[in-house]
Amino acid sequence: MERLQSNLQNMVGVLVGVAFVCALLLSVFNKITAGPVAEQADKALQDGIKSVMQSDSVVVSGDTIIEKEFSGRSLSFVVHMTDKGVAIESTDPNAFGGNLKVLVGFAEDGEILGYTILESAETPGLGAKAVDWFLDDAPGDIVGLNVWEDNLTVSKDGGDVNAITASTITSRAFLRAVTQAWSAYRGDKDDAKTGATQQVEKGGKK
Question: From CA 23, how far away is CA 28, in angstroms rounded?
Fold first, then answer.
């Protein structure tokens, strides 16, 4: 009985020792890789900002987080000030697959310079087409449109933008993310409302 108990204690001791060593190695590994991972993430963000600003833009100030309420829901927007305008991270939670997160580049007058999709759970071949559907010369091209001057809603709702084929819900979510980003940043011109945001506020069918 004593031998059995001794063996059990030895096994527990070995397991505890192994767990401790693993935890120590993991901690050391995380410290070693934290720097390179952060550098890679920063480079990816910088490349994304240059892409949506359509130029070799440089971030000139620290990120600013804006909290604003749209349709009874509090949303967060990350603003990156650059020497060519502003790049804003914006998320709409009502895309067909859930959250649709975009990074949009704006000139100071509200002109859309470009965008990239940061997060999406849309159906491949349908809503996932938002990756390039709204780019320059694409079917739903919004590059060059102005948030204050153009009707950034889908044509089905009387707007100026062609929706993704068979993906009107995702198209509306994308356009809301764009217009709400500018509204959160500037907040004037009737709060940059469009038919897309008004439709949600009125509880219209999506």
Answer: 9
